[in-house]
Design brief:
three-stranded mixed beta sheet, two-stranded antiparallel sheet, ubl conjugation, catalytic activity, acting on a protein, 19 strands
Amino acid sequence: MGWLSKILKVGSGHRIAEKNYQANYEEDPNSHLPSTSEGLWSENENEDIDRAIAISLVEESQKANNVIDRDYQLEEDELLAKAVQESLNLDSPPQYTSGNMYQPYLPQYQFGSRICAGCYNEIGYGRYLNCLNAFWHPECFRCRACNLPISDYEFSTSGNFPYHKSCYKENYHPKCDVCKHFIPTNPAGLIEYRAHPFWIQKYCPSHEYDGTPRCCSCERMEPQEVKYIPLHDGRKLCLECLDSTIMDTKECQPLYRDIQEFYDGLNMKVEQDVPLLLVERQALNEAREGEKHGHYHIPETRGLCLSEEQTISTVLRRPRYERGNRVSSTMSEPYKLTRHCEVTAILILFGLPRLLTGSILAHEMMHAWLRLKGFRTLSQDVEEGICQVLAHMWLSTELMSSQDYNDVASTSYSAAPTTSSRRKTMSKFERKLGEFFKHQIESDMSPVYGDGFRAGQMAVHKYGLQTTLDHIQMTGTFPY
């Protein structure tokens, strides 16, 4: 069949096959003759055979081409089916465990794909950011505060959220509550500031020695945009404390009666009618110098129980305030104290809020009760400690009664029964102020007032007030 292959190389046309055949035949006419006349082919038959062979060769060539085309089509179909199957896998329904707990479906991306942490879309070609252990489109990397894109080379973070440095400083860098500026850093690059332990008022360390005044009641520093009310003895009051301030002796009398009732309720009635006087700072200091015995609170004495015969000046009229928060002069007159008993008077510094004035008065009333009951030669920590216990008890009673009254008033239109002089309603700030005065007593670090109070408080909680007082009278010490 070597000739057939030669024909395929030259061509598959019928005309080419017929020409070659004739040439071969004419080359040797006797070499291919049959032996009998019955085996001879006619010329027409030979032409039919040539034509059939050529047609067969053409059909074989077309079949081979069809096979190649069909294989290519099958390969394309397989690729298309694979792509469709992968797309169906991405949208497959959620899987459930044997416990019927829903497992959220997480799409499986091809290796090397990146998901933006801002918009949660896949990041294609182009620029992207790799920050905070995540990938971001540049326009999706935004400040948590202002929601604008962050294009700076440096940024700040808080809780895995990015911030512009300026936005972070505005939101997290502490500002001084006095000057309202950002608190500066110290030479080590750290933010250093001071803060009140109760009010948490933050301020620059420089304000402690630059003359910034404090309120003589709550101890908060004066903000530069809000001026405190000056008193003519050099002290200053914030506007909140001024709202409940007691300024003269007459105004203090209802409070004095309330505290007398408080002592009566404890079966500790003060038999002697002890004069109560509100005085200025200078008069209180002068009276303290004239008293031969007694321990005085540092840094400033705000109350005194006198047992010596003296002459002092008492405040008679509430000072008036003019424009610019300037205070006009107060009116005072001499008051001669004569000794008819062991206690001659109780002096309280004027210009303090009602709750602070009351706690000081309750403290000094305890001094008077101890002296009138014959408690002598007590150590300073025991006497001052039990007096602080009574002041703390009165503050707690006032705050509790105010809360109970507010609860009743919120559910009923009728007022709770009370004395006409007692103030039952308190503002939110006044209650906070009362808690601050209690905090001052509890956190006092002085060995006389602080340690004495804590020892007395422990004894009263363990044995009760009356048993503690009996033990003090017999032994001069707290029971343990």
